[in-house]
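Regression test attached.
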Amino acid sequence: MSQVNFEEFLRDRFQIQFKNQDLLTEALTQRNYLNEHPEEKGRDYQRLEFLGDAVMQESVTEYLFKRYPNWHEGQLTEMRIAMVQTRSFAHFARVIHLDGAIRLGKGEEMNGARQRDSLLEDIWEAFIGALYLDQGADVVRKLLNETLFKAIDEHFFDQFIDFKSRLQERLQAKGTVDIEYTTDAEEELPDHTQRFTASVSVNGKHIGQGQGKSIKDAEKAAAREAMQNLDDK
Amino acid sequence: MSQVNFEEFLRDRFQIQFKNQDLLTEALTQRNYLNEHPEEKGRDYQRLEFLGDAVMQESVTEYLFKRYPNWHEGQLTEMRIAMVQTRSFAHFARVIHLDGAIRLGKGEEMNGARQRDSLLEDIWEAFIGALYLDQGADVVRKLLNETLFKAIDEHFFDQFIDFKSRLQERLQAKGTVDIEYTTDAEEELPDHTQRFTASVSVNGKHIGQGQGKSIKDAEKAAAREAMQNLDDK
């Protein structure tokens, strides 16, 4: 669990300070915590999660739509699926230290819920819902620019995309093709890990090359490059 | 098919005039139309539909969240499902005369696609996506205020909600209960249609009453009133 204070982190890293503190508290509160603290009058995070889920979907959709003006809706949908999902939201909840700030019931705490992806996803959405209400769409977009959207350039979401299947689907949409992967090189790096280089060709024509720690990773990188080359045409 | 000119209607009824006419054209263009008009350089509606779908989901979610501060997420979700669906969007596409404005391929036209709910849903979403890009979120909200959101007060979405099942689920969540519907009255109206009045009681206690053109409709109205009474508590 993160030892960083979430509210200090929000302020120092993103210059965000909630006007309505109750909204933030609601986003961080799990139902069983309220059952154990009947003196508290607040609500749990579920209504804010309902809102934040839709805000996330809309924000990511609008960003992808504008960033990739030449992608068709199938490519946009695929990228959105990779971004708007449990593992992605749980990851970014940890990145901004939301995990340590959740107000959890004792039983849930003992069961390890604080590190469970499904809870972290809910809390991420609830937090985004609270942020949207308290600070508006522009501040949400700014936070996403520095987290999810930046991660596109760092190829974070590539792990969730099966580029080899996607390339195959795309090439075969125009008829039967012969897709071949070849391993071009295998090196040992100074840190004693291996690096593989792979190429992909279609009907004998080279269309992409990539590198990775395994043959599988190198082929995936080659397929990704081939997709990119097809997009740029 | 509507004989009203869509763009004139937009201007006269909602004071909306597109700055970027190409965006509106794209939202109204079906793929086969482009296949038949290779001289046209534009795109079909599918990218804008991808955007508009998310804008609709977010707009309806935010509206329901703010309008019903005491509803829990289950109630909000149920209402959103009734509002964000094919039959609903197709209905409002016809209301604003979108149906007559679609640029459709000849084959699709002959197959009656212009009156197909699934196409009208797509075109509604694409139009909302174009409106959002061209005019911004406030204008989208204004249009929805005068169409979908107003229809809540006119009980338009009630047809999509099974109030009797919902009431039963809600009452039984707290243990076994005895729910009973009784028909209180049956009248003949001046136009020779019938009007029924029904009541619903739980464990012998009256909790709602409603009227309708059939016993079934009257019981549904009674269940709806009972749900409302439970909400107001």
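Expected vs. actual: identical. Chain A has a mean pLDDT of 93.
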